[in-house]
Write a structure and sequence with these properties.
It is built from 15 helices and 16 strands. The strands form three sheets. Strands 1, 2, 3, 4, 7, 8, 10, 11, 13, 14, 15 and 16 form a twelve-stranded mixed sheet that branches. Among the domains are: 1-36; 38-233 and 383-483, 3-Layer(aba) Sandwich (Rossmann fold). By secondary structure, the protein is α/β, with parallel strands linked by helices. The chain has helices spanning 2-36, 100-106, 162-179, 196-212, 235-246, 252-261, 274-287, 301-304, 319-326, 346-352, 355-360, 388-394, 414-422, 467-470, 472-483; strands at 38-43, 57-64, 70-77, 88-92, 111-113, 125-127, 137-141, 151-152, 160-161, 188-193, 221-227, 380-381, 400-406, 427-437, 440-450, 453-460. It is globular and about 60 Å long.
Length: 488
Protein backbone atom coordinates (compact mmCIF):
# COMPACT_ATOMS: atom_id res chain seq x y z
CA UNK A 1 0.00 0.00 0.00
CA UNK A 2 2.76 2.37 0.96
CA UNK A 3 4.50 1.74 -2.37
CA UNK A 4 1.29 2.52 -4.30
CA UNK A 5 0.75 5.76 -2.37
CA UNK A 6 4.32 6.77 -3.03
CA UNK A 7 3.85 6.10 -6.75
CA UNK A 8 0.67 8.19 -6.78
CA UNK A 9 2.43 11.07 -5.04
CA UNK A 10 5.30 10.83 -7.50
CA UNK A 11 2.83 10.89 -10.40
CA UNK A 12 1.06 13.94 -8.94
CA UNK A 13 4.40 15.66 -8.41
CA UNK A 14 5.49 14.94 -11.99
CA UNK A 15 2.10 16.11 -13.30
CA UNK A 16 2.35 19.31 -11.26
CA UNK A 17 5.85 20.04 -12.51
CA UNK A 18 4.69 19.37 -16.08
CA UNK A 19 1.89 21.91 -15.67
CA UNK A 20 4.35 24.49 -14.40
CA UNK A 21 6.72 23.80 -17.30
CA UNK A 22 3.89 24.05 -19.86
CA UNK A 23 2.61 27.25 -18.23
CA UNK A 24 6.11 28.71 -18.20
CA UNK A 25 6.61 27.84 -21.85
CA UNK A 26 3.25 29.43 -22.65
CA UNK A 27 4.25 32.65 -20.87
CA UNK A 28 7.61 32.69 -22.69
CA UNK A 29 5.83 32.14 -26.01
CA UNK A 30 3.36 34.90 -25.19
CA UNK A 31 6.14 37.32 -24.29
CA UNK A 32 8.02 36.38 -27.47
CA UNK A 33 4.97 37.00 -29.65
CA UNK A 34 4.34 40.33 -27.93
CA UNK A 35 7.97 41.33 -28.39
CA UNK A 36 7.90 40.45 -32.09
CA UNK A 37 4.96 42.86 -32.46
CA UNK A 38 7.06 45.78 -31.24
CA UNK A 39 10.14 47.70 -32.33
CA UNK A 40 11.92 50.49 -30.52
CA UNK A 41 14.90 52.80 -30.88
CA UNK A 42 16.63 55.18 -28.49
CA UNK A 43 17.03 58.61 -30.08
CA UNK A 44 19.95 60.70 -28.82
CA UNK A 45 19.88 63.55 -31.35
CA UNK A 46 17.45 65.18 -33.77
CA UNK A 47 17.89 67.46 -36.80
CA UNK A 48 17.51 71.07 -35.74
CA UNK A 49 18.54 70.49 -32.12
CA UNK A 50 22.09 71.46 -31.11
CA UNK A 51 24.00 68.57 -29.56
CA UNK A 52 22.63 65.61 -27.63
CA UNK A 53 19.09 65.54 -26.32
CA UNK A 54 19.11 66.24 -22.55
CA UNK A 55 16.34 63.69 -21.92
CA UNK A 56 15.67 60.08 -22.88
CA UNK A 57 13.60 59.77 -26.07
CA UNK A 58 12.46 56.50 -27.59
CA UNK A 59 10.40 55.93 -30.71
CA UNK A 60 8.96 52.78 -32.16
CA UNK A 61 6.02 50.78 -33.44
CA UNK A 62 3.65 48.39 -31.71
CA UNK A 63 1.60 45.98 -33.81
CA UNK A 64 -2.09 45.66 -32.91
CA UNK A 65 -5.26 44.27 -34.45
CA UNK A 66 -5.66 41.10 -36.50
CA UNK A 67 -2.22 39.58 -37.21
CA UNK A 68 -0.70 42.85 -35.93
CA UNK A 69 -1.70 44.43 -39.25
CA UNK A 70 -1.88 47.90 -37.65
CA UNK A 71 1.41 49.48 -36.59
CA UNK A 72 0.97 52.32 -34.10
CA UNK A 73 3.91 54.72 -33.89
CA UNK A 74 4.90 56.27 -30.57
CA UNK A 75 7.27 58.74 -28.93
CA UNK A 76 8.26 57.97 -25.35
CA UNK A 77 9.98 60.52 -23.11
CA UNK A 78 11.14 59.45 -19.67
CA UNK A 79 10.48 61.72 -16.73
CA UNK A 80 13.30 64.16 -16.12
CA UNK A 81 12.79 63.82 -12.37
CA UNK A 82 12.37 60.27 -10.98
CA UNK A 83 11.39 57.95 -13.86
CA UNK A 84 11.35 54.90 -11.58
CA UNK A 85 8.64 56.44 -9.40
CA UNK A 86 6.96 59.25 -11.33
CA UNK A 87 3.62 58.70 -13.10
CA UNK A 88 3.50 57.22 -16.58
CA UNK A 89 1.03 58.97 -18.89
CA UNK A 90 -0.29 57.55 -22.15
CA UNK A 91 -1.31 60.63 -24.15
CA UNK A 92 -3.71 60.84 -27.10
CA UNK A 93 -3.95 64.05 -29.09
CA UNK A 94 -7.44 65.01 -30.30
CA UNK A 95 -8.87 65.02 -33.79
CA UNK A 96 -9.37 62.16 -34.23
CA UNK A 97 -6.25 61.99 -36.34
CA UNK A 98 -3.93 64.53 -34.66
CA UNK A 99 -0.38 63.28 -34.23
CA UNK A 100 1.35 62.73 -30.93
CA UNK A 101 4.17 64.82 -32.34
CA UNK A 102 1.86 67.83 -32.11
CA UNK A 103 1.41 67.34 -28.35
CA UNK A 104 5.14 66.67 -27.98
CA UNK A 105 6.13 69.97 -29.65
CA UNK A 106 3.19 72.29 -29.00
CA UNK A 107 1.65 71.18 -25.72
CA UNK A 108 3.23 69.01 -23.04
CA UNK A 109 6.48 67.63 -24.48
CA UNK A 110 10.08 68.73 -23.83
CA UNK A 111 10.73 70.13 -27.33
CA UNK A 112 9.41 73.13 -29.22
CA UNK A 113 10.04 74.79 -32.57
CA UNK A 114 11.86 78.11 -32.68
CA UNK A 115 9.03 79.89 -34.50
CA UNK A 116 10.39 83.40 -33.91
CA UNK A 117 13.61 82.79 -35.85
CA UNK A 118 12.13 80.34 -38.37
CA UNK A 119 13.43 81.19 -41.85
CA UNK A 120 10.80 79.20 -43.72
CA UNK A 121 13.33 76.59 -44.87
CA UNK A 122 14.11 74.35 -41.89
CA UNK A 123 13.21 74.98 -38.23
CA UNK A 124 15.49 74.86 -35.23
CA UNK A 125 14.40 73.12 -32.04
CA UNK A 126 14.52 74.35 -28.46
CA UNK A 127 13.46 73.12 -25.02
CA UNK A 128 10.09 73.63 -23.36
CA UNK A 129 10.78 74.64 -19.76
CA UNK A 130 7.20 73.77 -18.81
CA UNK A 131 7.14 70.27 -20.25
CA UNK A 132 5.05 67.76 -18.32
CA UNK A 133 8.04 65.42 -18.58
CA UNK A 134 9.45 67.45 -15.68
CA UNK A 135 7.09 65.43 -13.47
CA UNK A 136 6.02 62.37 -15.49
CA UNK A 137 7.07 59.94 -18.21
CA UNK A 138 4.86 60.42 -21.27
CA UNK A 139 4.00 57.98 -24.03
CA UNK A 140 2.70 59.93 -27.05
CA UNK A 141 0.80 57.64 -29.44
CA UNK A 142 -0.17 58.25 -33.06
CA UNK A 143 -3.67 56.79 -32.78
CA UNK A 144 -5.93 55.87 -34.47
CA UNK A 145 -4.17 54.23 -37.42
CA UNK A 146 -3.58 56.76 -40.21
CA UNK A 147 -2.53 59.36 -37.65
CA UNK A 148 1.02 60.73 -37.84
CA UNK A 149 3.40 57.90 -38.73
CA UNK A 150 1.06 55.03 -37.82
CA UNK A 151 0.08 52.78 -40.70
CA UNK A 152 -1.67 49.54 -41.62
CA UNK A 153 -0.29 46.68 -43.68
CA UNK A 154 -3.64 46.22 -45.45
CA UNK A 155 -6.25 48.64 -46.73
CA UNK A 156 -8.82 47.02 -44.46
CA UNK A 157 -6.64 47.84 -41.47
CA UNK A 158 -7.35 51.54 -41.91
CA UNK A 159 -11.08 51.03 -41.24
CA UNK A 160 -11.50 51.87 -37.57
CA UNK A 161 -14.10 53.32 -35.24
CA UNK A 162 -14.22 54.85 -31.77
CA UNK A 163 -14.52 51.45 -30.12
CA UNK A 164 -12.01 49.69 -32.39
CA UNK A 165 -9.47 52.49 -31.87
CA UNK A 166 -9.94 52.27 -28.09
CA UNK A 167 -9.48 48.48 -28.14
CA UNK A 168 -6.34 48.82 -30.26
CA UNK A 169 -4.91 51.48 -27.94
CA UNK A 170 -5.54 49.19 -24.95
CA UNK A 171 -3.74 46.39 -26.82
CA UNK A 172 -0.92 48.82 -27.63
CA UNK A 173 -0.59 49.72 -23.95
CA UNK A 174 -0.38 46.11 -22.79
CA UNK A 175 2.23 45.19 -25.38
CA UNK A 176 4.28 48.30 -24.67
CA UNK A 177 4.26 47.56 -20.93
CA UNK A 178 5.40 43.98 -21.56
CA UNK A 179 8.36 45.40 -23.46
CA UNK A 180 8.97 48.03 -20.73
CA UNK A 181 8.32 46.06 -17.56
CA UNK A 182 10.23 48.51 -15.35
CA UNK A 183 7.19 50.79 -15.68
CA UNK A 184 4.60 48.17 -14.71
CA UNK A 185 4.58 49.37 -11.12
CA UNK A 186 4.50 53.11 -11.90
CA UNK A 187 1.19 54.88 -11.35
CA UNK A 188 -0.39 55.00 -14.82
CA UNK A 189 -2.75 57.61 -16.22
CA UNK A 190 -4.40 57.88 -19.63
CA UNK A 191 -4.82 61.41 -20.94
CA UNK A 192 -5.66 63.52 -23.93
CA UNK A 193 -7.58 66.52 -25.16
CA UNK A 194 -10.30 67.37 -27.68
CA UNK A 195 -11.66 64.23 -29.32
CA UNK A 196 -9.76 62.08 -26.83
CA UNK A 197 -12.72 62.90 -24.58
CA UNK A 198 -14.59 60.19 -26.49
CA UNK A 199 -11.90 57.51 -26.62
CA UNK A 200 -10.03 57.86 -23.31
CA UNK A 201 -13.00 56.86 -21.09
CA UNK A 202 -13.54 53.83 -23.35
CA UNK A 203 -9.89 52.82 -22.95
CA UNK A 204 -10.14 53.28 -19.18
CA UNK A 205 -13.16 50.96 -19.22
CA UNK A 206 -11.21 48.45 -21.34
CA UNK A 207 -8.43 48.44 -18.73
CA UNK A 208 -10.93 47.99 -15.89
CA UNK A 209 -12.61 45.07 -17.65
CA UNK A 210 -9.30 43.54 -18.75
CA UNK A 211 -7.91 43.58 -15.22
CA UNK A 212 -11.07 41.91 -13.88
CA UNK A 213 -10.78 39.24 -16.59
CA UNK A 214 -7.14 38.57 -15.72
CA UNK A 215 -5.61 39.97 -18.91
CA UNK A 216 -1.83 39.94 -19.03
CA UNK A 217 -0.22 42.10 -17.89
CA UNK A 218 -2.34 43.68 -15.18
CA UNK A 219 -2.36 47.42 -15.91
CA UNK A 220 -1.91 49.61 -12.82
CA UNK A 221 -4.20 52.37 -14.06
CA UNK A 222 -4.77 55.04 -11.41
CA UNK A 223 -7.04 57.31 -13.43
CA UNK A 224 -7.39 59.60 -16.44
CA UNK A 225 -7.09 63.27 -17.34
CA UNK A 226 -8.79 65.18 -20.14
CA UNK A 227 -8.47 68.73 -21.42
CA UNK A 228 -11.41 70.53 -23.08
CA UNK A 229 -12.74 67.08 -23.96
CA UNK A 230 -15.44 66.49 -26.53
CA UNK A 231 -17.67 64.23 -24.46
CA UNK A 232 -21.12 64.46 -25.97
CA UNK A 233 -21.67 65.44 -29.62
CA UNK A 234 -24.93 67.16 -28.68
CA UNK A 235 -24.23 68.75 -25.29
CA UNK A 236 -20.82 70.23 -26.11
CA UNK A 237 -21.68 72.07 -29.35
CA UNK A 238 -25.09 73.00 -27.93
CA UNK A 239 -23.36 74.81 -25.05
CA UNK A 240 -21.61 77.23 -27.42
CA UNK A 241 -24.58 79.61 -27.54
CA UNK A 242 -24.80 79.91 -23.75
CA UNK A 243 -21.03 80.32 -23.47
CA UNK A 244 -21.01 83.02 -26.16
CA UNK A 245 -23.71 84.89 -24.25
CA UNK A 246 -21.87 84.53 -20.93
CA UNK A 247 -18.68 86.07 -22.35
CA UNK A 248 -20.61 88.93 -23.97
CA UNK A 249 -20.32 87.82 -27.59
CA UNK A 250 -24.11 87.88 -27.99
CA UNK A 251 -26.67 90.50 -26.95
CA UNK A 252 -29.21 89.42 -24.36
CA UNK A 253 -32.13 90.01 -26.77
CA UNK A 254 -30.72 87.61 -29.39
CA UNK A 255 -29.75 85.00 -26.79
CA UNK A 256 -33.20 84.98 -25.19
CA UNK A 257 -34.94 84.95 -28.58
CA UNK A 258 -32.87 81.94 -29.70
CA UNK A 259 -33.32 80.17 -26.37
CA UNK A 260 -37.10 80.56 -26.59
CA UNK A 261 -37.59 79.80 -30.29
CA UNK A 262 -35.14 76.87 -30.27
CA UNK A 263 -36.18 75.62 -26.84
CA UNK A 264 -32.49 75.88 -25.84
CA UNK A 265 -31.64 73.23 -28.42
CA UNK A 266 -29.37 74.65 -31.13
CA UNK A 267 -28.13 71.44 -32.79
CA UNK A 268 -30.05 69.47 -35.45
CA UNK A 269 -32.85 72.02 -35.54
CA UNK A 270 -36.16 71.21 -37.20
CA UNK A 271 -35.90 72.80 -40.69
CA UNK A 272 -39.49 74.02 -40.35
CA UNK A 273 -38.66 76.04 -37.24
CA UNK A 274 -38.00 79.21 -39.23
CA UNK A 275 -37.80 81.53 -36.23
CA UNK A 276 -35.15 79.38 -34.58
CA UNK A 277 -33.14 79.13 -37.80
CA UNK A 278 -33.28 82.89 -38.28
CA UNK A 279 -31.96 83.45 -34.76
CA UNK A 280 -29.20 80.91 -35.28
CA UNK A 281 -28.27 82.68 -38.51
CA UNK A 282 -27.90 85.93 -36.57
CA UNK A 283 -25.78 84.15 -33.97
CA UNK A 284 -23.58 82.74 -36.72
CA UNK A 285 -23.06 86.24 -38.09
CA UNK A 286 -21.82 87.29 -34.63
CA UNK A 287 -19.48 84.33 -34.11
CA UNK A 288 -18.25 83.05 -37.46
CA UNK A 289 -15.21 85.36 -37.68
CA UNK A 290 -13.90 84.30 -34.26
CA UNK A 291 -11.12 81.84 -33.54
CA UNK A 292 -13.16 79.14 -31.81
CA UNK A 293 -10.08 77.49 -30.30
CA UNK A 294 -9.18 80.71 -28.43
CA UNK A 295 -11.64 83.56 -28.78
CA UNK A 296 -9.08 86.21 -27.77
CA UNK A 297 -6.70 85.34 -30.62
CA UNK A 298 -7.07 86.32 -34.28
CA UNK A 299 -8.57 83.83 -36.69
CA UNK A 300 -7.08 82.85 -40.03
CA UNK A 301 -9.74 80.32 -40.95
CA UNK A 302 -12.49 82.69 -42.21
CA UNK A 303 -9.87 84.22 -44.52
CA UNK A 304 -8.62 80.88 -45.79
CA UNK A 305 -11.68 78.63 -45.89
CA UNK A 306 -15.40 78.97 -46.61
CA UNK A 307 -17.76 80.04 -43.84
CA UNK A 308 -18.92 77.04 -41.82
CA UNK A 309 -21.96 76.30 -39.72
CA UNK A 310 -20.64 77.24 -36.30
CA UNK A 311 -23.43 75.63 -34.31
CA UNK A 312 -23.15 72.13 -35.72
CA UNK A 313 -20.27 69.96 -34.46
CA UNK A 314 -17.85 69.66 -37.36
CA UNK A 315 -15.01 67.18 -37.00
CA UNK A 316 -13.26 68.46 -40.11
CA UNK A 317 -10.19 70.57 -39.43
CA UNK A 318 -9.38 73.33 -41.97
CA UNK A 319 -5.71 73.57 -40.96
CA UNK A 320 -4.39 71.75 -44.04
CA UNK A 321 -6.09 74.30 -46.28
CA UNK A 322 -4.63 77.14 -44.21
CA UNK A 323 -1.14 75.62 -44.24
CA UNK A 324 -1.31 75.02 -47.99
CA UNK A 325 -2.38 78.63 -48.58
CA UNK A 326 0.36 80.05 -46.35
CA UNK A 327 2.99 77.90 -48.07
CA UNK A 328 1.70 78.40 -51.61
CA UNK A 329 4.60 80.69 -52.56
CA UNK A 330 7.19 77.97 -53.14
CA UNK A 331 8.76 76.29 -50.13
CA UNK A 332 8.95 79.51 -48.14
CA UNK A 333 5.75 80.29 -46.22
CA UNK A 334 3.84 83.40 -47.14
CA UNK A 335 2.81 85.06 -43.89
CA UNK A 336 -0.08 87.48 -43.68
CA UNK A 337 0.63 90.69 -41.78
CA UNK A 338 -1.69 89.56 -39.00
CA UNK A 339 -0.17 86.79 -36.87
CA UNK A 340 -2.32 83.70 -36.46
CA UNK A 341 -1.52 80.62 -34.39
CA UNK A 342 -1.82 78.37 -37.43
CA UNK A 343 1.49 79.89 -38.58
CA UNK A 344 3.19 78.21 -35.61
CA UNK A 345 2.27 74.83 -37.06
CA UNK A 346 4.10 75.33 -40.38
CA UNK A 347 7.51 74.26 -38.99
CA UNK A 348 6.06 70.89 -37.97
CA UNK A 349 5.03 70.12 -41.57
CA UNK A 350 8.48 70.98 -42.90
CA UNK A 351 10.36 69.20 -40.09
CA UNK A 352 8.31 65.97 -39.94
CA UNK A 353 8.33 65.52 -43.73
CA UNK A 354 12.11 65.86 -43.97
CA UNK A 355 13.79 62.57 -44.92
CA UNK A 356 16.62 63.15 -42.44
CA UNK A 357 14.13 63.70 -39.63
CA UNK A 358 12.17 60.56 -40.49
CA UNK A 359 15.39 58.55 -40.56
CA UNK A 360 16.37 60.01 -37.18
CA UNK A 361 12.96 59.05 -35.74
CA UNK A 362 13.32 55.55 -37.27
CA UNK A 363 10.17 55.92 -39.35
CA UNK A 364 9.80 52.95 -41.68
CA UNK A 365 10.35 54.02 -45.28
CA UNK A 366 7.36 54.10 -47.59
CA UNK A 367 4.69 53.66 -44.90
CA UNK A 368 3.37 57.24 -44.83
CA UNK A 369 3.18 59.32 -47.98
CA UNK A 370 2.94 62.67 -46.19
CA UNK A 371 2.89 63.57 -42.51
CA UNK A 372 0.12 65.98 -41.49
CA UNK A 373 -0.45 67.33 -38.01
CA UNK A 374 -4.13 66.41 -38.08
CA UNK A 375 -5.37 63.92 -40.66
CA UNK A 376 -8.96 64.74 -41.62
CA UNK A 377 -9.21 61.97 -44.25
CA UNK A 378 -9.23 58.95 -41.94
CA UNK A 379 -11.44 55.99 -42.76
CA UNK A 380 -13.11 56.44 -39.40
CA UNK A 381 -16.56 55.53 -38.08
CA UNK A 382 -17.89 57.72 -35.27
CA UNK A 383 -19.90 55.09 -33.40
CA UNK A 384 -19.89 56.66 -29.93
CA UNK A 385 -21.82 59.92 -29.74
CA UNK A 386 -21.33 60.33 -26.02
CA UNK A 387 -18.82 59.00 -23.49
CA UNK A 388 -20.87 60.14 -20.49
CA UNK A 389 -22.10 56.57 -19.84
CA UNK A 390 -18.47 55.43 -19.64
CA UNK A 391 -17.69 58.18 -17.11
CA UNK A 392 -20.76 57.14 -15.15
CA UNK A 393 -19.60 53.54 -15.05
CA UNK A 394 -16.08 54.57 -14.06
CA UNK A 395 -17.47 56.33 -10.97
CA UNK A 396 -17.87 52.83 -9.54
CA UNK A 397 -14.09 52.30 -9.80
CA UNK A 398 -11.17 53.54 -7.69
CA UNK A 399 -9.94 55.83 -10.47
CA UNK A 400 -9.06 59.49 -10.13
CA UNK A 401 -10.07 61.91 -12.90
CA UNK A 402 -8.85 65.39 -13.79
CA UNK A 403 -11.04 67.28 -16.24
CA UNK A 404 -9.78 70.74 -17.16
CA UNK A 405 -10.89 73.52 -19.49
CA UNK A 406 -9.13 76.45 -21.05
CA UNK A 407 -11.80 79.04 -20.29
CA UNK A 408 -11.46 80.89 -23.61
CA UNK A 409 -12.43 77.87 -25.73
CA UNK A 410 -15.57 78.12 -27.87
CA UNK A 411 -15.08 74.69 -29.51
CA UNK A 412 -15.72 72.70 -26.32
CA UNK A 413 -16.84 75.34 -23.81
CA UNK A 414 -16.55 74.79 -20.08
CA UNK A 415 -20.34 75.27 -19.88
CA UNK A 416 -21.02 71.93 -21.59
CA UNK A 417 -18.23 70.18 -19.70
CA UNK A 418 -19.68 71.21 -16.34
CA UNK A 419 -23.12 70.13 -17.53
CA UNK A 420 -22.12 66.50 -18.14
CA UNK A 421 -19.96 66.38 -15.01
CA UNK A 422 -22.95 67.46 -12.91
CA UNK A 423 -25.10 64.82 -14.61
CA UNK A 424 -22.91 62.17 -12.92
CA UNK A 425 -24.55 63.18 -9.59
CA UNK A 426 -21.30 63.05 -7.62
CA UNK A 427 -21.00 64.53 -4.15
CA UNK A 428 -19.13 67.83 -3.90
CA UNK A 429 -16.02 67.33 -1.78
CA UNK A 430 -14.62 70.87 -2.18
CA UNK A 431 -16.72 73.75 -3.49
CA UNK A 432 -15.89 75.99 -6.45
CA UNK A 433 -12.96 78.25 -5.59
CA UNK A 434 -9.88 79.82 -7.21
CA UNK A 435 -6.53 78.09 -7.43
CA UNK A 436 -3.32 80.11 -7.43
CA UNK A 437 0.10 80.30 -9.03
CA UNK A 438 2.70 82.94 -8.14
CA UNK A 439 0.16 84.63 -5.91
CA UNK A 440 -2.32 85.10 -8.76
CA UNK A 441 -5.56 83.34 -9.70
CA UNK A 442 -4.64 80.72 -12.30
CA UNK A 443 -8.14 79.32 -12.65
CA UNK A 444 -10.96 77.78 -10.66
CA UNK A 445 -11.58 74.29 -9.35
CA UNK A 446 -14.24 72.09 -7.78
CA UNK A 447 -13.76 68.55 -6.46
CA UNK A 448 -16.22 65.66 -6.49
CA UNK A 449 -16.17 62.23 -4.90
CA UNK A 450 -18.21 59.02 -5.02
CA UNK A 451 -17.08 56.18 -2.77
CA UNK A 452 -13.45 55.60 -3.89
CA UNK A 453 -13.76 57.56 -7.15
CA UNK A 454 -12.53 61.17 -7.28
CA UNK A 455 -13.03 63.82 -9.96
CA UNK A 456 -11.30 67.19 -10.00
CA UNK A 457 -12.54 69.83 -12.41
CA UNK A 458 -10.32 72.85 -13.09
CA UNK A 459 -10.25 75.82 -15.42
CA UNK A 460 -7.04 77.36 -16.75
CA UNK A 461 -7.57 81.10 -16.94
CA UNK A 462 -6.92 82.61 -20.35
CA UNK A 463 -6.22 79.28 -22.10
CA UNK A 464 -7.77 77.94 -25.28
CA UNK A 465 -8.80 74.46 -26.38
CA UNK A 466 -5.34 72.92 -25.73
CA UNK A 467 -4.59 74.61 -22.42
CA UNK A 468 -0.83 73.79 -22.19
CA UNK A 469 -0.26 75.31 -25.62
CA UNK A 470 -1.67 78.66 -24.49
CA UNK A 471 -0.79 78.64 -20.79
CA UNK A 472 2.14 76.26 -20.28
CA UNK A 473 3.28 77.32 -16.80
CA UNK A 474 -0.09 77.07 -14.98
CA UNK A 475 -0.92 73.88 -16.89
CA UNK A 476 2.26 72.23 -15.59
CA UNK A 477 1.53 73.45 -12.06
CA UNK A 478 -2.01 72.07 -12.32
CA UNK A 479 -1.03 68.57 -13.39
CA UNK A 480 1.93 68.38 -11.00
CA UNK A 481 -0.32 69.20 -8.05
CA UNK A 482 -2.98 66.75 -9.18
CA UNK A 483 -0.47 63.91 -9.54
CA UNK A 484 0.67 64.72 -5.98
CA UNK A 485 -2.96 64.48 -4.71
CA UNK A 486 -3.34 68.12 -3.77
CA UNK A 487 -4.56 71.08 -5.75
CA UNK A 488 -5.15 74.29 -3.82
Amino acid sequence: MTSNNQQQQNMISIFGRSKIIVLSLFVVLLLTLFHLATSQSTITSLPGFPGKLPFKLETGYVGVGDADSVRLFYYFVESEREPNYDPLVLWLTGGPGCSGLSALFYEIGPLKFDVEDFDGIFPNLGLNEYSWTKVASILFVDAPVGTGFSYAKTSEGYNVSDTISAAQTYEFLRKWLIDHQKFLSNPLYIGGDGYAGITVPIIAQEVLTGNKNGNFPRVSLQGYLLGNPLTDTYTDPNSRVEYAYRVNLLPVELYLAAKTSCNASYVNVDPENVECLDNLGAIEDCLSKLNFAQILEPSCYPLLSPKQNVIKWDRRFPEEDAIETLMSNGSRPHYPELWCRVQNYIPSYIWANDKGVQDALRVQNGTVEEWVRCNNSLSYTYNVNSSVAYHQNLTKSTYRALIYSGDQDLLVPYVGTLQWIRSLNLSVANVWQPWFLDGQVAGYTVEYAERLYELTYATVKGAGTTAPEYKPKPSLAMVDRWFAHYFL
